[in-house]
Amino acid sequence: MTTVAEAPAPEAGDERKPSFGRRLFNAYLYGSTPVLVLLSFVSALIIGAILIVISDDPTRTAMGYFTQHPSDTFSRGWHAISLAYSQLFQGSVINTDSFYSDGGVPVLNPISDTLTNATPLMLGGLSVGLAFRAGLFNIGGQGQLIAGAICAGYVGFAWNLPAGLHVIVCVIAGAVGGAVWGGIAGALKAKTGAHEVITTIMLNYVALYLLGYLLSVNGFQKPHSNEAISRTMRSTALLPHLFGSNPKLRVNFGLIIALAAALVCWWLLSRSTLGFRLRAVGANAFAARTAGMSIAGSYIVVMLIAGSLMGLAGASQVMGVNTSLNQSIDANIGFDAITVALLGFASPGGTVLAALLFGALNAGSVQLLSHTSTPQDLVHIMQAVIVLFIAAPGLIRLIFRLRASRGGGGGALAKGWNG
To answer: Which of 6, 83, 105, 262 is a good FRET partner for 68, with 20 to 30 A between their CA atoms?
Structure first.
């Protein structure tokens, strides 16, 4: 009797994994999170190009005789788009068109401005994102930043300490000031149930008017000045520059503080018991309470940490970007941080990347305005469009014909972003 040989059963673990190229294709096809972010950025560039063409006078003039010479419209439109985006790039990443008087190429100027703008956005985005993960909407970044800047600024101009120690004490003072301001909202939420959106907005006004009052008080206001500006920070309290003493290379040690804070937030959320508790409370407060977790304590702790991060942003402003306090010290960072946190999906890694993107757009907008006729509002429109598409991923899926999200390659690649 003849028997047919049976194929050996596959051994455990013998299943072949898809290639990296296949996983990348699946990531695009099913719209993983990084792909959605990238496509949102590309969509914003396309919409920006349309607005550039509309706002460019030579292109609009050529449109008037489009049927006679259509090539003029396309050539002038392309020139306007390429000029605007090239200036945006050279103002934020690298600029080889200009030289110092001594002949050196200022290749680090744009990236220095980008990193300087991104530093407080990183800290602010981490603050908002951490509160998000615990189920709170920290819209009081402006007040916490101002409180941190007040404390760091006062220590910086009123105390006389050695150079290294003075910087450390100022940074700690800024973190403590922001933590106290955030902790007030956390305590009100925990003890009375007051909604954090209302309390933090009100605390923003309190901090803003407190700063205005302090800037008119003798001993705090700059001597012999009628302006609302504080005394100048002592040189020992200023954050050291990372690229030497060149005043054009403004990026300072605040960037290291921001990156270190991002690393600490990542460890806190993904590796610590406290982070697990905060994420559990944010995911389902009722289930967390049933499991024996303190909801009130979690709200207070997360707002203390979130406030300290925003306070560090205020300290970096007064110790690095500015050398004194004024009523515009917050520079709208408290509200821009909400956008950065949303774009970064409230994850430390995503927040750092989002802050770098927004820092680059803000830095490039200066050169865009000075070298082209494109209005600076284009940058703000692009930022808004990016966040709009991120908040509505279904729209991106519809535009680029992506399939419904599923597990597999796309989800695997997105896992690192969202972690």
So the answer is: 83
Query: Contacts from 55-61 at CB under 8 Å and sequence distance 24+?
Result: 55/373, 55/374, 55/375, 55/378, 56/80, 56/373, 56/374, 57/373
Q: Which residue has the tokens 């819209």?
A: 139
Classified as helix, coil or strand, 357 is: helix
Contact 200, 207 (CB under 8 A): no
First to last CA, the chain: 60
List of domains in the chain: 109-353 (1.10.3470)
Convert the pLDDT of each residue in 275-320 to its tens digit.
999 999 999 999 999 999 999 999 999 999 999 999 999 999 999 8
Q: What is the pLDDT of residues 226-256, one digit of tens each?
A: 888 999 999 999 999 888 777 778 889 999 9
Q: How far apart are CA 152 and CA 175, in angstroms?
A: 8
Report which of 365, 340, 334 is spatially closest to residue 355, judged by C-alpha positions: 340
What is the identity of the amino acid at 93?
V
